[in-house]
Amino acid sequence: MKSNKRVTSLKTLIEIFKVSTKLGLTSFGGPTAHLGYFHEEYIRRKKWLDEKTYAELVALCQFLPGPASSQVGIGIGVMRGGILGGIISFLGFTMPSVIALIIFALLVQGLDVSDAGWIHGLKIVAVAVVAHAILGMAKNLTPDLPRKAIAILAIAVVLLWQTSFAQIAIILLAGLVGYFLFKQNNEGENSSFSFPITKKMGVLCIALFFGLLLLLPMLRELTSSHLVAMFDSFYRAGSLVFGGGHVVLPLLEREFVPTRLISEEAFLAGYGATQAVPGPMFTFAAYLGAVMDGWLGGFLATVAIFLPAFLLVFGTLPFWNALRRNGKMKGAFMGMNAAVVGILISALYDPIFTSAIIEPIDFVFAVILFSMLTYWKMSPLIVVITGVVGGTLITLL
Questions:
Q1: Where are the alpha helices (H) located in 143-283, listed in sequence order?
Q2: What b/e sequence results for 10-34 when a residue is b if at least 16 CB atoms lie within 10 Å of its CB, and e otherwise?
Q3: Alpha helices in 27-163 (DSSP H)
Q4: Domain boundaries, the chain
Q5: At what angle do helices 380-396 and 360-374 cross, to 10 degrees?
Q6: Cβ neighbour number for residue 202 with a 10 Å cutoff
Q7: Which of 48, 93, 115, 303 has its CA 20 to 30 A from that of 212?
Q8: Can you tell me which residues the record assigns to a coiled coil (predicted)?
């Protein structure tokens, strides 16, 4: 009997890995598109979850900081194959882009990319992609005047107080404002569902999440190890990002570019290249880690930035039913999401726009790329290829 269970479990884990890897190789287009791919594969084709449970899981992952699509994938893996299923689901979805970006980083490392035309093209692609992300997010996350005001305040704070602490402070402040301002919000259904994770396990994961957030900076100061410093920076970025992968850009830029651990050209080149690969935007960390410290750095950065996602998903699943019924907590996250829009707009201006748009022709090209994404609904891969070719041609003019 136990042997049959083990065979069934192994078959389930192999199936999870095959399906998630297929998604990891084909899921272009950002978090929203990823959720569409997940729905098609996991719900319509495999029928691993029903529509209602999937909607609840998406709601949970939108509620938490971190990469929403990766967290949904982890959650589906947990429901299908337990904690090990969640880990395997994550590996299948994430590893293809991690490997591709580490290889790209190692290739770029040996080249002088500062004046390359294709790098300039990728910078302009970054302008179009972030502008496209802002357009979609602003409609959903800042629909009323109070949330628009929070977004404007976030822009001012982040641009005028340029430290990594500024982003943390404005997100916490926005959460506090939202907690009181939107406390009567009662949107959404109150259905319930369960996961194979105990409350004891949930408490342990939440404690570990906050423990690492507090202890890593102290360990960084005590050891003076560049690997500990790198792990701390990426862990903190993965812990404090609300609203999807694009928002991780300003946090990581503030951590590594001013300290000259990575050049602005290499940073934006990697950001542009990340648009060309499938999978979550957070795999940008693998590129940055590899540029700074080779394969080891890429692996360490990937573990650090995604670890908070695991701890938060495993930690909140057992308590989600009670948490999502709390109107004040929903209000706090509404405020935080509005601040995310402001942080994203500030990132669009500096460093993305200021380093990419130098001549009028650069702006014209950015508008064309933005239109390809927004109005002509072209694949991000096509937009990236267009950006590389166009950037090369612009430098030759």
A1: 145-160, 164-181, 199-223, 226-240, 248-256, 264-274
A2: eebbebbbebbbebbbebbbbbeeb
A3: 31-38, 51-63, 68-109, 117-141, 145-160
A4: 2-396
A5: 160
A6: 20
A7: 93
A8: none
Q: Is the pLDDT of residue 191 over 70?
A: no
**What is the four-CA torsion angle of 111, 125, 104, 263, rounded to 10 degrees?**
50
Distance (Å) of CA 31 to CA 100, 153, 373: 19, 26, 15
Q: At 20, which helix (H) or strand (E)?
A: helix 2-26
CA pair distance 231, 241, nearest whole angstrom = 16
Give CA–CA dist 392/229, Å, rounded.
Answer: 36
| Alpha-carbon distance values, 159 to 236, 238, 250, 347, 349 (Å) | 20, 21, 11, 9, 9
Closest CA to 28 of 275, 270, 286: 275
pLDDT of residue 281: 83
Tokens of 285: 């960390």
- Best CA proximity match to 16, nearest among 81, 110, 68: 81
Contact (CB, 8 A) for 270 and 284: yes
- pLDDT tens per residue across span 144-185: 999 999 999 999 998 898 765 677 688 789 989 988 888 655
State residue 1's pLDDT score. 45
